[in-house]
Design goal:
The protein has about 325 residues and is α/β, with parallel strands linked by helices. Helix 7 packs across helix 11 and helix 10 crosses helix 12. The chain is elongated. The protein has two domains: about 140 residues, Cobalt-precorrin-4 Transmethylase, domain 1; about 160 residues, Rossmann fold (3-Layer(aba) Sandwich), CATH 3.40.50. The chain is built from twelve helices and twelve strands. The strands form two sheets. The protein has a six-stranded parallel beta sheet with strand order 2-1-3-4-5-6.
């Protein structure tokens, strides 16, 4: 029987459906380079996002690492209409013994979603694509296709958004979720950095490209703040009694980070921030903050102008200056 190579399979496909748990390096480094330049329609779906059966007709379905339960019955029912069905793996997922020594929760995940699916994969005539010569040799009886990794980089420079608030800023952390999640949904260049604990981690779960940094001592934070790469700093203030006593010190933090700041209109920040001169002053409305984030993300020159003016003003306010 003639073996169809991964490149031949992709070239022949009219629609390619990629099924993945979440965005991951396996797809980015191995599957995406294979698809570069192909003419097929490419659809990416999560574990719990199965397609209607009619959209699978004639499709090449690529399962990235795992066989999700929500897709199994769907693929079984429509297997005869598929152009092809593939499992790509970049670890030894089909050998239960290969994961010995790993945390048991992770071993159970590998077993449940891959290792215990061998008979199902055979029964559905699933082609195997692998990432290394070792895996190709080990699973030679499957006549696997070997994918070569390729470097991946965003098409344009990413833009970093951040909010560095302590535990006393719980209202602001919750308030920011709506505008930040919407901005990240619309603008793929954006990422978001926030300081917080497990509660913050849970709050922002499901929002893409969010990094939650554990709280740290003040001196450690000063060094952390000077690490390059931050572009837009957020400093909202929810109208509550505790915030009535706040000062405008976050202006200094954001300026020292080399970023442009977004601040609430009608707040203490108006003592140091001039809208459109050394930062932006906004009403405490989520859509206004989302729009401002998106505008600054798309305008590097404006970010540079505002952040430079803020740094100059910050320097002039230094003790002894």
């Amino acid at each position: 029987m003639e073996v169809i190579t991964p490149r031949q399979a992709v070239a022949a496909a009219r629609r390619i459906v990629i099924v993945q748990e979440r965005p991951n390096p396996s797809k980015d480094f191995f599957v995406d380079p294979l698809l570069h330049g192909c003419t097929a329609e490419v659809v990416v779906r999560g574990f719990d996002e199965p397609l209607p059966g009619e959209l699978l007709k004639g499709a090449l379905v690529i399962l990235v690492r795992y066989v999700p339960p929500a897709w199994k019955k769907l693929l079984e029912a429509h297997r005869h209409t598929l152009e092809g069905l593939v499992l790509f793996m970049d670890d030894d997922l089909l050998d239960l013994a290969a994961s010995q020594g790993l945390p048991w929760r992770y071993r159970w995940k590998l077993a449940r979603l891959a290792g215990l699916q061998r008979n199902w994969l055979r029964g559905q005539r699933v082609a195997l694509w692998v990432s290394t010569p070792f895996l190709a040799r080990k699973y030679a009886e499957w006549r696997p296709g070997l994918l070569q990794p390729a470097a991946w980089a965003p098409p344009t420079r990413p833009v970093s958004l951040f909010y560095h608030g302590s535990a006393s800023h719980g209202d602001e952390i919750r308030w920011l979720r709506e505008p930040v999640a919407e901005a990240l949904r619309i603008e793929p260049r954006l990422s978001f950095e926030i300081i917080g604990d497990q509660r913050v981690q849970r709050l922002y779960a499901g929002v893409p490209r969010v990094t939650v940094v554990r709280p740290m001592a003040w001196h450690a934070y000063q060094h952390f703040l000077l690490q390059p790469g931050r572009d837009i700093g957020l400093a909202p203030l929810v109208d509550n009694r505790f915030n009535q006593a706040r000062s405008y010190t976050k202006f200094f933090d954001i300026s020292r980070a080399g970023a442009v700041g977004l601040y609430p209109r009608g707040s203490i920040f108006e003592e140091v921030v001039q809208d459109g001169i050394n930062g932006r002053l906004l009403p405490m409305e989520p859509q206004a903050w989302c729009r401002a984030i998106l505008e600054l993300t798309g305008n590097c020159r404006e970010r540079t102008r505002l952040s430079h003016a803020a740094q100059v003003g910050c320097t002039k306010r230094q003790v002894g200056a």
